[in-house]
Amino acid sequence: MAKPGLDELVFVPLGGVGEIGMNMAAYGFGPARSRKWIVVDCGVTFAGPQEPGVELILPDPAFLEENADDILALILTHSHEDHYGAVLDLWPAFDRPVYATDFTTLMLSAKRESEGIVESVDVKRMVVGKPFAVGPFTIEAINVTHSIPESCALLITTSAGRVIHTGDWKLDPHPVGGAPTDLARFAKIGEDRSGPIALICDSTNAMKDGTSPSEDEVASTLEALIAEAPHRVAITTFASNVGRVISVARAAQKAGRKVVMSGRALHRITGIARELGMLEGIEPFLDQNEYKTLPRKDVVLLCTGSQGEARAAIARIAREEHPEISLNAGDRMIFSSWAIPGNEREVIDIQNLLIDRGIEVITRDHAMVHTTGHPRREELKQLYDLVKPDVLVPVHGEAAHLEAHALLGRQHGIDTVVHARNGDMVRLFPETTQFPGEVRVGQLYLDGNVLCTPEESGVKGRRRLSFGGHIVVSLCVNSSGQIMAGPELVIEGLPDVEDDEESLPDVVRRAVTGTLKSIPPKRRSDSEMVNNALHRAVRSEVTSYWGRKPNVTIFVHRV
After folding, report:
1. What pLDDT does 4 receive?
2. How far apart are CA 559 and CA 552, in angstroms?
3. Which residues, including other chains, have CB under 8 Å from residue 4's CB and lie 6 or more apart?
4. What domains are there in the chain, each with its CATH number?
5. Taking a C-beta distance cutoff of 8 angstroms, is the pair 468, 547 a contact?
6. Quick check: 103 and 272 in contact, CB under 8 A?
């Protein structure tokens, strides 16, 4: 065991370990009672059907709030929502600097403006290859290839040992619009044995053999699909994938076509990329109001909505509701993306609408039109060989991804592999030890404009209403229990079948009148008892009629 008062380097995952999304981690250094902390990433995940009405889910920062005086900084690896989407909601409360690359800084600024966020954060420039000190930590950003510009791994150095926090990455020898992962720097770190190394590593594709296809393979496919298309070509992709946008633009230029862009996110992100010089040689994109002026064979439409968002451009086009853009039979629609789990049904529905209208739909099931930004097993092994880690902690994945990654690391000869989950505290150095469930973790819901805990959100009640509907009964009774007015009914979300012998309102009224008659006159003055009796009766009768238990609210007014 480590001695009391000894400087320790610890890792605490606050989100993203045991789940996809909501990535947030803390690194602490020093004796247990006086540690200083840095935070890496502050992301969100998207709510699913089980959280009706909720827009985003954020990591609960309770642990950081408990240690707020010792928090030194937040470092962002890149500007995907699952890594930086919660910064403007959570970080202003800490009043500590945020370190980010130029692209991520501009993305934060654009996000704040587009969403009308009043709070701001102090952003300091982080430059790849230039180490900087934050308290007892020295941090160096290392270039890695991912599906958004300026993605970084972090080398975190302390007197107790070093950590490579990979962020999201892959080994793509031919990326589009950016430099390849800096293998030489990783090799140099691995050769330096002045102190132990822990690898905190992306597990997203740890269950997939081989290596991830290169972005230039996608570029070649898109070039061919655009060149041979007889009419319009429409493409939807992740707005943040600037490399993919560059591939589309180059293919369009080569085919003599103009790129029309539709969607605010695409305009915003490509504007940032052009400001930073990432779109050199790419002709300006046309806005959607120029779409109708171009011949069909001269158009490449680049639009938002790859995840089936109802108000995004491609969904509106599929429903024939877009004010400027339409597609016709014989046009080609390419989904240069993949459906994030939970979005599959919405994406398929859009594709079916297009197919029914005679539009050719091409997905990654038909051609190499999309590739991942995460490493497969051979890439993971290559990184192990370069870095030679003493400790491996798989992160960024669900349980199956994490366990597959852990097994791969052990099979490859890594001495210590830690099976961490959100809320665990892992002492990396000295003497790697895991303390399960040491730290309070959880979720916050962004519900409209309100940030709240799941218990405060009312989501449980919404789910109940979605299955059982709602019956409201309001009536006035006198002291003898006689109905003086009503019952008035409001019935929402229950079936209304006209040809039944007895309608649902009839069932409810019968339950109310029958229950009041059954209560002895002397007991009808007990308002609580009358209310409970009516609630039980209405629920029971409707359950018998419908076969499901409704939600029932009773209002008994005394006159």
Report:
1. 55
2. 23
3. 31, 32
4. 8-210+372-457 (3.60.15.10), 215-362 (3.40.50.10710), 469-558 (3.10.20.580)
5. no
6. yes
pLDDT of residue 556: 86
Question: What letter represents residue 373's amino acid?
Answer: G
- Please, where are the H alpha helices in 166-214? 183-191
Residues 6+ apart with CB under 8 A from 198: 9, 11, 161, 162, 163, 164, 389, 390, 391, 392, 393, 428, 429, 432
- Reported as a single tens digit per residue, the pLDDT across 9-27 is 999 999 999 998 999 999 9
Sheet holding 483-492, edge to edge: 483-492, 470-477, 551-558
Neighbour tally for 386: CB within 10 Å? 19
Residue 135 near residue 338, CB atoms below 8 Å: no
Question: Residue 333 forms beta bridges with which residues?
Answer: 234, 361
- Are residues 507 and 547 in contact, defined by beta-carbon separation less than 8 angstroms? no
pLDDT tens, position by position, 249-260: 999 999 999 999
Q: Which residues pair with 551 in a beta bridge?
A: 470
CA distances from 494 to 459, 472, 543 (A): 20, 12, 11
Are 136 and 29 in contact by the 8 Å Cβ rule? The answer is yes
pLDDT of residue 1: 43
The string of pLDDT tens digits covering residues 142-171 is 999 999 999 999 999 999 999 999 999 999
Contact 64, 94 (CB under 8 A): yes
- Return the amino acid letter for 518: S
Tokens of 181: 């992962």
- Collapsing DSSP to helix, strand or coil, 201 comes out as strand
Q: What's the whole-model pTM score?
A: 0.90
205: nearest Cα among 404, 478, 61, 416: 404
